[in-house]
Amino acid sequence: MSTVRQLRLVVAVEDYEAAVAFYRDALGLEEREAYEGEGDARVMILDAGMATLELSNQAQVRLIDSVEAEGQPSARIRVAFEVDDADGMTVKLTDAGARLIASPRETPWRSLNSRLDAPADLQVTLFQELGEQ
What torsion, rounded to 10 degrees, do the Cα atoms 87, 92, 93, 95 define? Predict the structure, then answer.
């Protein structure tokens, strides 16, 4: 039995409002908690559904980069969000300020993946599970 109850990715952002507008408003992550403190201190905790930690060796990273982003190397830490409509969400997030690295494409593991440079200096993968063939 695991003793870990939650994975929380904490990101220090330069532009708090832009990050909230992107991740909460455009991507649609639900606000769970928000707090303000002295000196304009602010934090918002967004619900991103189930959390997992994916550990990949360098050979796997190169394989993913070749399939997902035409060989463009991924950042050391990349945040992946499962969405219902990878095509539509990719357009929505590029309209909201993300830079497209790779447009949605079907992977050998039957998902539709795109890659973006997003606010808060995060590299983001959007993936839509396509199910059995």
Answer: 130
The per-residue pLDDT for range 2-52, each reduced to its tens digit, is: 799 899 999 999 999 999 999 999 999 999 999 999 999 999 999 999 999
- Rg, Å, the chain Cα set: 16
Topology given in CATH for the domain delimited by 16-129? 2,3-Dihydroxybiphenyl 1,2-Dioxygenase; domain 1 (3.10.180)
**Beta bridge mates, 123:** 78, 117
The overall pTM is greater than 0.90: yes
SS3 1: coil
Residue 71, C-beta contacts closer than 8 angstroms, at least 6 positions apart: 65
Compute the distance between CA of residue 22 and CA of residue 112 in angstroms, rounded to an integer. 21
